[in-house]
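[Discussion] Sanity-checking designs against the backbone

I'm trying to build intuition for which residues belong where. Below is a structure token string of 676 positions. I'd appreciate it if someone posts a full sequence so I can compare it with mine line by line.
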């Protein structure tokens, strides 16, 4: 369970109300930030949100607030948190936002406020250098990829000066530096207080600092990892806290599902084998018998996961379907042999109990792996859906909760009295019903025994969408299931991109459609054409920004968290409504559950989830008051189907046109016709 102060909610003293500056004196016209920051702009929506957050922190309860792009929601929750006098966890969707808060927002406030705020950034263990592992690497440098060796000198220089051990502080270290896995350590392999580096450990120091801070900045993955560990009876990651603020809260269901289920992959087998080998070698007790058992487990694990994924592409597949396939007998035998190898490893490790302190923990890991794999293949719990996922050269077996609402309620909502959920995309059709249903907030809201208030705020848009933006939906384009759909998309994309002279994101819901359209247009367009997969995401965006007339073809990872401000982006084209595939095992299971309960899975799940994703894609265009342009949604179902209205009502209030010629006229009125 999340940490809660020992005193009861009714007896807890409200802190920080007396003597603290008003929010208006900070965020209002002529306020502190207006005077101190050159580019600060007063926004009543920001002050409105800050007041709502402050009230929730003071009085307890639950707050949901949708703050459209441009609101300045980060400061709107950060300033009340800093002023509250309470210990507040701020959980974000990305590490990038974490670092923005700690490296930019809080120092800027501290500078102008002349106050040293007690705030700290806390990341997952794998982000920090393990001193024990680093010492082993110094003695015997081995690299997972040949190019990794070129960064070894840089890392050794950094180790001499770092105070944090955070890999993000190593300038120029690429995201795909594979050897970092050998320089950091998992919680499962860590010796904890028995390690000789425990007191000076970067993780220990980070947690100690966090325990003394008033604002603790984490990401959703770390928060739910902590919540899951508490449920299992393990030591918590986070110190005690009074309140949680979830930024980018639309990600919570997805992230929480990963930590409230089971996940076993080929990488876990490999990591267990490597951790045991490293531990025993460092203790100088490795012998031929143990090496033989480890080698056997590695081979059998590889065989099992290879057979599970045989003949399949990247994606998700029901485990039950795989076990009924042609490889059924071979998979069952491979599973049996891998189980035998894990049991043998458990027994083999008993020989080292008196020699190596963490032998028992290593043995437990082997037992846990066997148990979890057995559970996954048995698939006996109806509350979960069981599927295999192939991605990033890995094979992952999952048991994911179908209905997260009850789990979320019992593990968080019933344990924590003060929660704030915020995002630019929380509401659909001007209400929070879908969000509340997915996370169990609707049940809490109706609970007569829960006295704490639940507040909702949908803030007015900051930008003038009616003037800054145009939405185009082609009525007569063949529907997405038509064999002529891609051909129609090619024609419209070419037409619109030429009007805009590049300056376009073309976003797709599938790689297949992206590749098909790109293949047709790559040579036909007279502008720089970039495509996702041609290089790292950051490099593609840098190239896009550098050439004002570029066109970028991309899929889901570019639908959110991407900012291109100014003239470089004037056109966002979305190929079709981003409905989740009903063939996805988890999606299918959740839809089936809704139907079994008497609901309409399409209107209650498919439409609102797609509407939120569409809003995120739409949000790539208008990022400032100076941005202007067109969002084209090339899905005629918006015009022809009854549910189409739902999507338009979820989007910001921009005018909608139905013919491409209207786009052309609007564009030339705004920007002028090109010179002949």
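Best answer:
Here's mine. Compare freely.
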């Amino acid at each position: 369970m999340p940490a809660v102060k020992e005193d009861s909610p009714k007896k807890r003293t409200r802190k920080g109300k007396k003597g603290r500056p008003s929010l208006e004196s900070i965020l209002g016209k002529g306020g502190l930030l207006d005077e101190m920051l050159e580019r600060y702009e007063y926004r009543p929506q920001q002050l409105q949100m800050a007041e709502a957050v402050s009230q929730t922190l003071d009085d307890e309860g639950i707050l949901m607030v949708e703050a459209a792009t441009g609101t300045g929601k980060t400061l709107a929750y950060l300033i009340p948190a800093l002023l509250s006098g309470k210990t507040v966890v701020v959980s974000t969707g990305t590490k990038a936002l974490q670092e923005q808060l700690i490296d930019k927002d809080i120092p800027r406030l501290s500078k102008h406020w002349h106050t040293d705020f007690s705030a700290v950034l806390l990341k997952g263990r794998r982000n920090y250098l393990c001193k024990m592992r680093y010492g082993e690497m110094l003695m015997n440098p081995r690299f997972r990829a040949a190019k990794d060796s070129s960064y070894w000198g840089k890392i050794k220089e950094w180790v001499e000066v770092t105070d944090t051990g955070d890999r993000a502080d190593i300038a120029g270290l690429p995201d795909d530096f594979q050897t970092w896995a050998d320089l950091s350590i998992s919680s499962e392999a860590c010796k904890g207080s028995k390690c000789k580096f425990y007191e000076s450990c970067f993780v220990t120091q980070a947690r100690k600092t966090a325990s003394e801070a008033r604002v603790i900045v984490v990401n959703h993955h770390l928060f739910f990892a902590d919540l899951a560990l508490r449920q299992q009876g393990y030591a918590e990651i986070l110190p005690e806290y009074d309140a949680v603020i979830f930024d980018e809260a639309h990600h919570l269901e997805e992230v929480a599902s990963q930590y409230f289920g089971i996940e076993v992959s080929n990488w876990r087998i490999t990591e267990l084998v490597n951790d045991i080998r490293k531990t025993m070698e460092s203790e100088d007790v490795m012998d031929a018998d143990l090496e033989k058992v480890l080698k056997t487990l590695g081979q059998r694990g590889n065989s099992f996961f290879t057979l599970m994924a045989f003949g399949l592409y990247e994606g998700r597949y029901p485990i039950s379907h795989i076990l009924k396939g042609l490889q059924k007998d071979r998979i069952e035998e491979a599973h049996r042999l891998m189980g035998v190898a894990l049991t043998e490893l458990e027994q083999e490790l008993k020989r080292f109990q008196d020699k190596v302190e963490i032998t028992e923990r290593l043995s437990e890991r082997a037992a846990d792996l066997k148990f979890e794999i057995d559970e996954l293949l048995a698939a006996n719990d109806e509350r979960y859906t069981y599927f295999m996922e192939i991605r990033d050269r890995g094979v992952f077996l999952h048991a994911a909760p179908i209905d997260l609402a009850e789990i979320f309620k019992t593990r968080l909502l019933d344990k924590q009295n003060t929660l704030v959920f915020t995002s630019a995309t929380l509401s659909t059709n001007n209400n929070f019903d879908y969000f509340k249903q997915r996370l169990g907030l609707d049940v809490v809201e109706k609970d007569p025994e829960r006295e704490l208030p639940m507040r909702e705020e949908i803030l007015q848009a900051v930008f003038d969408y009616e003037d800054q933006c145009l939405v185009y939906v082609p009525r007569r384009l063949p529907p997405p299931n038509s064999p002529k759909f891609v051909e129609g998309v090619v024609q419209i994309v070419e037409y619109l991109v030429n009007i805009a002279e590049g300056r376009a994101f073309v976003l797709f819901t599938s790689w297949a459609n992206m590749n098909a359209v790109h293949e047709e247009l790559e040579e036909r367009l007279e502008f720089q054409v970039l495509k996702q997969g041609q290089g790292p995401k950051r490099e593609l965006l840098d190239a896009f920004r550098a050439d004002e007339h570029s066109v970028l073809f991309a899929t889901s990872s570019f639908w959110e968290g991407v900012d291109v401000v100014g003239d470089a982006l004037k056109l966002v084209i979305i190929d079709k409504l981003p409905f989740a595939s009903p063939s996805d095992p988890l999606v299918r299971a959740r839809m089936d559950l809704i139907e079994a309960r008497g609901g309409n899975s399409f209107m209650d799940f498919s439409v609102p989830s797609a509407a939120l994703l569409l809003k995120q894609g739409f949000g790539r265009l208008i990022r400032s008051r100076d941005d202007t342009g067109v969002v084209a949604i090339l899905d005629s179902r918006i015009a022809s189907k009854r549910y189409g209205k739902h999507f338009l009502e979820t989007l910001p209030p921009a005018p909608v046109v139905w013919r491409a010629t209207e786009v052309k006229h609007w564009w030339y009125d705004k920007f002028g016709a090109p010179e002949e």
